[in-house]
Amino acid sequence: MTITWVALIFLISTTYIAIHSDLETVATTCIAGVMTILSTYIWAETKRPTSGKE
Predict the structure, then answer these.
(1) Closest C-alpha among 31, 35, 32 to residue 19
(2) pTM for this structure?
(3) Contacts of 34 (CB under 8 A, 6+ apart)
(4) Which of 15, 24, 38, 49 could form a disulfide with 30 if both were Cys (CB 3.0 to 4.6 A apart)?
């Protein structure tokens, strides 16, 4: 879990630096990484029903 937060902080800070340096490609890639981390975290924390077992 800690590595997830470290990666998230790194990507967010890199995004801000890229935006201020007019590096749109780097910023877009970092935002995609942030969205991937968030969606993976949500997917892991969501309680999904099992297949036919109760």
Answers:
(1) 31
(2) 0.70
(3) 8, 11, 12, 15
(4) 15
